[in-house]
Structures are given as structure tokens and as C-alpha cells.
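Backbones bend. Shown next:

***
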Amino acid sequence: MHPRLMIADLQEHPLRAPLNNEFHARPPLPLIGATLVSHLAFKHGAPLSTSERAHITQLSQAHTAVSIDSSDAHLLLETTSFRLRWELHTEFSSYTFFKPLVSGEVLDPEATAFDAVDPAWLGAIPGKLIVACHIELRATDEVSPESILAELGPNGRPMVAARVADNAAWVFSDLKVNNGFSRFLVLNGGMTQRQTGRTVQRLVDIETYRIMALLGLPIAKEVGQWLYKSEKQLAALMDRIGQAKTPEDERHILAALSLLAAEVEHSIARTTFRFGAARAYHGLVTQRIEELRETRIRGLLTFDEFMQRRLQPAMATCAAIGRRQEELSGRVARNSQLLRTRVDIELERQNQELLGQMNQRAKLQLRLQETVEGLSIVVLTYYGSQLVNYLAKGSKGLHHLDSDVITALSIPLIAGLLAWATRRMRKKLATEAAKVTA
């Protein structure tokens, strides 16, 4: 019989389980009946998992609470009065409270799902509040869509609404902040519990991600003003390049271009993350709206249309500013390279002139050297002849020739030998120099 494979016998990758669990993390909560949902999102500079979990532990100690699901970046807490869902993201943390309502219960306009929570605990949540919204979930038997539409007169406030989940529910909102919260009304006309939970989660995501995406707009406006000045500065520098007359002028312009290039790269480094995050958040908003499967309500904007009219221009502005920065960086780099080429050409011309002057000096030195060599031959011939004269006088008893005659005859011989030796040495040095050059 073939031995049975045991998973325990195999070496498992350490990320296998975490990666698989990621697909099943943060499932939507199934919602039954009328429910009030209050969602808070807090912007932070860095993940604060330890401090936030410690803060949530304080809340659980103040209430009879049970942790249903928990991980490093997610926690679901259930109490007798509410449910809390906490999620830790890269830039923000979200706290979503769920409070069941009695069917037909009339809500106070300022009622929230976290009314049972100590305000001091809410005020001590780490980070800065960036999103706050309420979602009121009702059945169409309690609140009819027609009654809501009847309240929307021609002079009333603008409303964004749509039928969602294949016409199984109605969603209404003006996406404005009133008393600190934006508000959604969801009328359930036939969604299942999980459909309801997914719809509420999508609305929460839309509200959160659209605000997070818009964080890039103020930066884009600020950078846009700086880009306008920088582009004019670059144009002025290009004019100065055409008017430059001396290498000193070109060096000053090159220094200004280098400074501008550094400022552009600093701006790109400062905004790359923000613009990239804006693109990602906008993509999530678009995805969540598509998942709603909207159907138009006559006379009202859908959420997709509203985002196309209001959010899309802001995202287009961020994208355009990002492109302008990249284009400006490329133009500065090209113009700097052009100017460097001009400076290099001028330096090469100066070097050629310097080499020419050095060659001329070398020729003069060679002529001087040849003159000195000629004088050296004369001097050496003189001393050589004197030595011959001394030898002739000293050996007078060995021969009958006059010492002056011997000295006179030795002069051309000595001069010829010295000239031949000098020429031979010069040829040898020239040969060695040619080998080195080759």
C-alpha cells in the first residue's frame, strides 16, 4: 500500500498560513434588521498597533466584552450594547461601531452607535480624526423609499442616491458633513444578512477612501504654484544660456540649474508617496462603487456620477502635477546636460590651446637643447684635445712628432666621435619614445 502523504512531514514556507489568512481577513459582518453604524477613521504618521490595542483593551475592561476575531491589524469586539470593529491600515486606523435598533425606533439626530462608550476613551484614540460617518440601516417596511423621495423637493439639498445590490436596496446620502458626521441611509428591500454587511462595508470604504484620496489635492495645489515659478525660472535660465558670453557666465547658469534640479527632485521625493496613495485610494473608491451595482434613480445622481464629477477632477489634478514634476525634472536634466556639453567643449578648446603652447615651449626647449649640445661638443672637444696634448708632451720620448701637431690632428677626430655619439644617443631615445607612444 502506498504510504499516505503527511503535511507535517513537509517543510512549510513561513508565509504560507499568513498569506492564506489574508484572503479571509476582515470579512463583512452579517447585519440583521435595523442597525445604526458609526465609523471613525484616524490618520497617523506610523502604524500604532501596540498603543491602539492597549487602548481597545481599556474599552473591553470597561464593558462586558468578548473578542470574536483578532489579529495584529484587525479586531472584532462584541459587548451587550454594541460591536466594535477595529482595523489598522498603513496611514490610518478605523473604528466601526454597530448598534442594533428596535424596528420602528425613532433616532435622535445626534444619536451614534458609540453612545455607550466613555467620551474620554473616544477622545484619547491615537491619531487625528479624518473620517466620521453614520449609516442608518432600515427595512423598506419601516421607511419607504417613496417617502424619502417625496421629501426631495426641487429646492431641497442635492442628494446622491441609487438602487444597489441588483435593486435589493436603496442608498441615500448628500456626502456632506453635518454636526461632524456624513450620513447614509440604507433601505433594505430584500438583501441577505451578508449582502447587507457587504453593502455597509462598501459605503464605509467609499467614504473613507475618498477622503484619503483627497489628501493629495492640497499638496497638488501647493506644488502647482511652485511648479509655475520653477518653469518660469527654467525658461529664464534658457534665455541666459543663449546670452552667455564667457565661461564664467555658463558656470553661473550651470550652478543655478543644479540648484533647480535639486529642488525638483526634493519635491518629487516629497510628493511621490502622497500622489501614489491618492491613485490607490481612488482606485479603491471606483472598485467599491462598481461592487454596489448601482441602478439610477430618476432625477438623482448616482455615486459613480458624483465621484466622476467631484473626485475625478481632483485625482486628475494630482496626476497632472505629478507628470509636470517628472517633465520638469527631465527638462532640467536635458538643459543641464546641454550646458555641461558647452562647458566641456570650451574646456577642451582651452586644453587644446594649452597643449599647443606646451608644444611650442617644448620645441623651443629642444632647440635650446640642441644649441647646448653643440656647445657641449665644442667644450668636450677642447678638453679632450688638451688631454691629448698632455699625453703627447708626456710621451715625447717615445715619438718624434710635435705635440701641437698631434693635438691639432686629434681635434677633428674627437669632435667627430662626440657628434656621432650624441646622434646615436638621440636616435636611441627617439626610438624608445616611439615605443612608449605606440
In short: The domain at 31-196 is CATH 3.30.2030 (TBP-like).
